[in-house]
Automatic annotation (TrEMBL):
Residue stretches making up the UreE urease accessory N-terminal domain: 3-68
Gene3D superfamilies reported for this sequence: Urease metallochaperone UreE, N-terminal domain, UreE, C-terminal domain
The protein's name: Urease accessory protein UreE
Function in brief: Involved in urease metallocenter assembly. Binds nickel. Probably functions as a nickel donor during metallocenter assembly.
């Protein structure tokens, strides 16, 4: 099976033979190694040196130089809004306190659809409207300003001695020795 061994970021994508496209949700855009099949039927193995977040518009470079276009799949989300900047900041604090992935835009915060969180937001005076769109959550403090990253520097306060704990941004959380 042919392998995709590198990512060409959308901003750096100049030209190349795009032979297929892959449509992935937020969770599947954070991978290192995974068998994939493009929309057009091309089967390949994603085989990157480290876990990488694939963004909408990136391309996966196959071993033979051909490219597979990456497209962010629409997902069921909640668009959280409030009547003022202060009210929205307050909602963001409550959402962040639950350690769930969130995408922050100029006028809304997008989170994965969850009826319990929708009721919480409404109970705090905000609106939470279901929408379907690609999800591009923030990467977190240790992700280098990009989407979720796997690695960390040395331990953080409150982490177990000799190891570290982290959240992947897609519901997975674990501790390394």
């Amino acid at each position: 099976m042919i392998r995709a061994t590198s990512v060409i970021r959308a901003a750096a994508l100049a030209r190349g033979e795009i032979v297929d496209r892959i449509v992935l949700d937020h969770g599947d855009r954070h991978r290192r190694r995974m068998a994939m099949r493009g929309v057009g039927g091309l089967a390949f193995l994603l085989d990157l040196p480290e876990p990488t977040v694939l963004d909408d518009g990136d391309a996966l470079a196959l071993e033979d130089g051909r490219l597979v276009w990456v497209e962010a799949a629409p997902e069921r989300l909640l668009a959280v809004r409030a009547g003022s900047d202060h009210a929205l900041k307050r909602l963001i604090w409550h959402i962040g306190n639950r350690h769930i992935p969130a995408e922050i835009t100029d006028d809304a915060v997008f989170i994965a659809y969850d009826h319990v969180l929708a009721e919480m937001v409404r109970g705090l005076g905000g609106s939470a409207e279901p929408v379907e769109r690609p999800f591009r959550p923030e990467g977190g403090a240790y992700a280098g300003g990009h989407a979720p990253a796997h690695g960390h520097d040395a331990g953080h306060p409150g982490e177990p001695a000799g190891g570290h704990a982290h959240h992947h941004g897609d519901g997975r959380y674990h501790i390394h020795d």
